[in-house]
Amino acid sequence: MFAAFAAPAFAQTGNAWPTKPVKLVVGYAAGGATDVIARLVANKMGEDLGQTVVVENRTGANSNVGAEVVARAPADGYTLYVFTIANTINASLYSKLGYQPVKDFEPIGLIAKIPNLLVVNPSLPVHSLPEYIKFAKETPMGITFASSGSGSSIHLSGEMFKMKTGLNMLHVPYRGSAPAVTDLLGGQVQSMFDNTPSAMPHVKSGKLRPIAITSRERSALLPNVPTVAESGFPGFEVQSWFGMAAPMGTSQPVIQRLNTALNKALSDGDIKQRLAAMVATPTPGTPDEMRKFVASEISAWNEVVKASGAKAE
């Protein structure tokens, strides 16, 4: 788990913190879900803190580049990181990391969660999860599922489902979600546990058929699509998630100030509406709640990564 202690850093910043802009590092390119969500909360938090919160994209190695930058930054509250599900997967996926996902970060709080959506090409004679399972069992070659890359949350959602069901599911990795969806639309692959915002336009146009959603509850935007859990797999839940963290050693008063500003932003009506349009659920809470959640995610994904045999260097 994240270590939690009050460091003397606040003595250096004093009660006047922040006295200059705060940098929020995103480990992915501009325009993606992580970046969009970061900019939403950054703008609102800046209003509360009285200083601009500037989003900086530091891409590479499935967000590891950005994480390492922040892990090595001064623990003064002026450099923060958008901690995601990828960092808890990477803890098992990579044999060597330039940072430690737990020991190098102080949690500030969770931001939001986005479910994945099991979608199939409409040519597949499958309209429900039981039918999907039946098709996979009765087809000699099993069923194919695409992903945005080996070790991604999209890939491991499929691997977790494969673990739970024992189905013959062939993973077909791509370099990103866009080419994977393109081949799914074209029928080169049969299914995908895609991030819901990515899949939604194709579901609405009828080009992809939704089978089940991986959140604990159904989505208001897809009320007729059942959850995986209610379709015969109680407790099954996979969601991409986003949180905020600071370098280890950042003082607790600064962490608490940031947590208050973050939770205030997440209670804003406009932000709630914009997150809902992304099928994202705001997840306000405490640093300790994020600490416990991250620990549970690292443990869960360690089991799935081992079972899948996925590795990255």
TrEMBL record:
| InterPro entries xref list | BUG, Bug_dom1
Please report the name of this protein according to its UniProt entry: Tripartite tricarboxylate transporter substrate binding protein
Q: Which Pfam families match?
A: TctC
Which family is annotated? Belongs to the UPF0065 (bug) family.
Q: Which residues form a coiled coil?
A: none
| UniProt superkingdom | Bacteria
